[in-house]
Specification:
The structure is a homodimer.
Chain A lengths: L2 E3 L5 H11 L1 H7 L1 E5 L3 H6 L4 E6 L1 H6 L9 E5 L1 H7 L8 E6 L13 E5 L5 H13 L4 E5 L8 H7 L8 E5 L1 H10 L3 E5 L5 E2 L11 E5 L8 H6 L2 E4 L11 H11 L6
Parallel strand pairs in A: 1-4, 3-4, 6-7, 6-11, 7-8, 9-11, 9-12, 10-12
Antiparallel strand pairs in A: 2-5, 3-5
Helix pairs in contact in A: 1-2, 6-7, 6-10
């Protein structure tokens, strides 16, 4: 029988809540908190699960949770409510070790997605999911992007955050320069002075990196200048723009793994 | 100087609130309410604006609102708060006539998107926006879809709801039969027993209709059987599925207007 936590002031609960709410704390601890009956087992396939918290009713609905690794704690409903970042939750929470990846892992011939200051957690999560779906080898994030391991991003990515290497790279122009040194073609998504996607090659022997900017401002001039060339999704004049997650996913589809 | 509304119990305000909250009332009245400094002028380009409500601060920020057609009313802030469906709003609201379109307008050689029981307003709005962007001629909705003219859908569609004909068609298999009578190839998006999109033609001389089902269940068996054939977006095994708005938009991109 697992130990039961009855107090919202329990040290393990307070630690998990800090992981949930603070990106800086997540980074310094190298851990994150996720919530969900389906999401936690999914994440456990790609990241080390250290601690699992569950309510009695969650375990009754989903007894296979008992097979997950790590320390397990039964928590009372009011404790689970504290762990949740939103009102509704499924009573299952996990503390995971954050997988760490660096630019040194980027390899010639690979497919990469780079995000500069994409601030919406839903867009970052969706793009991670699409990149994993279309056979990309990694996702590079600049400063100012929504945190990959924040509760909202984890939900939108549906576990993809641990199925594809995520590299936090600081300033984007420097990261682009590193990729180009390895022979990777870096394509900036930009509306102006750009080549329509329908005219772009589907693959590049040295590898390709699709570079996407923030929802409001797009890419910085420095990043566009650092890239090999620019590309845009051609549209009719009936809309001004596409949603960033949609536009990015269409680019990822175009540059997908050849076998798909 | 426009008349000023100071009471939340004003008949015009109560009428607008009913339009905002009830799909059945919107349908019986043939009108809808939209909110937004950018969205209202955008919608006014494609739908008849009957009544505009604005706060003093909204007009100060955006004096060109005065050029919009229809009756104009200045409303006090607490009245504007009642008109808004969410906490934050921009103080600009419009009552519009709903454009009405029918299946009889569907034409051979055209491009159509059909949605069966797509329940998330964000997905319906996003797909309308992508369909308008890629030169589609109309969107057909079955019973059980999120309302196109609900506040959340209007925000996600960014005005596309009035830039592309929207046809509310009831049961989807009957609608598909009508389209096929006109020589339109109807492609059901389905994960199983389907052809990968990468192997599908990009255009069909008789026209094409992309048919997308609900987020959880996909298309009904009756709709799949009514379609010409099925198509799927090939993916790696690293994800289980794509977001419905993303998957649909990639299909729309594939079957886009040839000039794009």
């Amino acid at each position: 029988m697992d130990e039961k936590i009855t107090s919202r002031e329990n040290a393990k609960i307070k630690y998990a809540c800090r992981l949930s709410s603070g990106a800086a704390f997540r980074r310094s601890e190298g851990r994150f908190l996720a919530e969900g009956r389906k999401l936690c087992p999914e994440l456990a396939r790609g990241a080390q699960l250290e601690t699992l918290f569950y309510t009695e009713s969650a375990m009754a609905k989903c007894p296979e949770l008992a097979d997950l690794p790590g320390e397990h704690y039964l928590v009372e409903d009011h404790v689970a409510d504290k762990l949740a970042d939103v009102g509704t939750h499924q009573g299952v929470f996990g503390v995971f070790r954050t997988p760490v990846h660096g630019l040194d892992e980027v390899k010639t011939g690979g497919r990469y997605l780079a995000l500069e200051r994409v601030q919406d957690p839903g867009n970052v999560g969706t793009l991670l999911r699409s990149a994993a779906a279309f056979g990309f080898d990694g996702v590079i994030l600049s400063d100012g992007c929504a945190s990959v391991y924040a509760p909202k991003t984890l939900r939108a990515s549906m576990g993809a955050a641990v199925r594809i290497p995520v590299i936090e790279a600081g300033a984007m122009p420097d990261a682009i320069a590193r990729l180009r040194e390895k022979g990777i073609t870096c394509l900036a998504a930009a509306l102006y002075k750009s080549q329509p996607l329908s005219a772009a090659q589907a693959s590049y022997p040295g590898g390709v990196c699709v570079v996407i900017g923030s929802e409001g401002q797009g890419l910085t001039d420095a990043t566009i200048a650092a890239c090999t060339s620019t590309v845009r999704i051609p549209m009719t004049d009936r809309v001004e723009s596409l949603n960033a997650g949609i536009a990015g996913s269409i680019l990822l589809w175009h540059f997908r793994e050849e076998s798909l």
